[in-house]
Amino acid sequence: MKILAIDTSTTHSCCSVMENDYIVGEFSINQSMSHNEILLDMVQEMLSKLNIDISEIDLYVAVTGPGSFTGIRIGVTTAKALAMALNKPIVSVNTLEAMSFGVFSENKKIPIIDARGGRVYYGVYKGYDNCEIEKPDLMDIDELLMKFDNSKEEIIFTGDAVKLYEKRILKNTNFKVTSPNLNSCISRNACVIGKEKFKKNILADCYTLSPEYVRQSQAQRDLEKREEQK
Q: Dihedral of CA 216/219/222/226: which sign?
């Protein structure tokens, strides 16, 4: 079984191919170009190097956020378009779930994504089975750290916002942070999660699959504000 996962929910564009439980290809880049400019080229180049035709992909995995509003839309739309065009199944994977999945620990894991303005998207997971114990939400980073400040157990923070807030996090001796290789490029994790969802028949519908924003985009908030002022 060949699985293609696409993630554009953070500043990284990344895609991975898993075949028969092996990650056989991965392409990740973090640079100034928009996801829209490079994503399809990345997918095509990776598949070309692997000698895999796009028609051979059996399952698509869309990483649905939270994260960058524009970025998520690009990745989700691309995965949906490919699945629809080739009549292949698709599953969705939450960005925070995929981030914490790569951290092998029996303790709590809190993936964090920069939401700007001192805020982060976060979720709380625990154990080797990556069990979700708090649904994704948006919170000020200092409020989040205060929320778990009295924890008696070790808590591991991971994700692209770790570097940004590392000093604040490590003020608490029970808080740990993951190394840079675990904080981004999560499409390979999404492949594994996606396959498990497929086996359990937890499939998405291309017509209704949408990004997980946690909060409304600025454009949506501006529109509602204009409507209220009429």
A: negative
The answer to whether the beta carbons of residues 185 and 26 sit under 8 Å apart is yes
In sequence order, the 6+-apart residues with CB closer than 8 A to the CB of 189 are 98, 99, 101, 102
Q: Please say whether the beta carbons of 3 and 17 come within 8 A.
A: yes
Question: What distance in Å separates the CA atoms of residue 212 and residue 230, rounded to the nearest whole number?
Answer: 29
Tokens 């993951």 found at: 178
Q: Measure Cα distances from 71 to 101, 103, 201 in Å.
A: 21, 24, 27
22's tokens: 């092996």
Peptide bond into 66 cis (omega under 30): yes
Bridge partners of residue 61, in order along the sequence:
5, 91
Question: Among candidates 71, 61, 62, which has minimal Cα distance to 9?
Answer: 71
Structure confidence by residue, pLDDT tens digits, 45-68: 999 999 999 999 999 999 999 998
